Amino acid sequence: MSKKETKNQEPVQETPKDQAAPQTEEPVEQPQGEQAAPPEENDPLLSELEALKDQNAQQEDKYLRLAAEYDNYRKRTAKEKESIWTDAKAETAAAFLPVYDNLERALKQETADEAYKKGVEMTMNQLKEVLSKLGITEVPALGEPFDPKKHNAVMHVEDESLGENTVAEVFQAGFQCGEKVIRFAMVKVAN
User: Fold this and answer.
1) DSSP assignment, residue 11?
2) CA atoms within a 13 Å half-sphere pointing along the CA-CB vector of 149
3) pLDDT tens across 32-80, in order?
């Protein structure tokens, strides 16, 4: 070899056999029952995940509240609609109650004209039929126990043949639509 060749060659170092070349570290398997160390608490992915979980929980809560509000609104409007219908029927019937009273008075009067009496009876029956179709019923009063929610006591009488707080006489019929009283029955109460 020439001197030039020896200068260009670099000396090669031999490694002893007992020295191993550096190797890349392989993951060491953890024995069962031991957990790997928890990841850093400042890990941005974990904090982002927690923020998204919180945001999801808030959105779910908002959704459930909105669904509950809508359900309450639906029930309330259905109840109001039914109430409006009942109120409209009650107001309409209340306008016809003076006619009912006059027909009732006409039926109590004696008359020689049978055709006239028959006509008044037919008119009264027709009015009762219309009221019943609307769901308007007469408040039971005569012989019933006095109920201040349905009866208006205008007189009091002592009568041992009747029980205590019993309606003895009805001066004016009362009417109700379902549970709503349109007009209280005007009555005389015994004892």
Assistant:
1) P
2) 3
3) 555 555 555 578 999 999 999 999 999 999 999 999 999 999 999 999 9
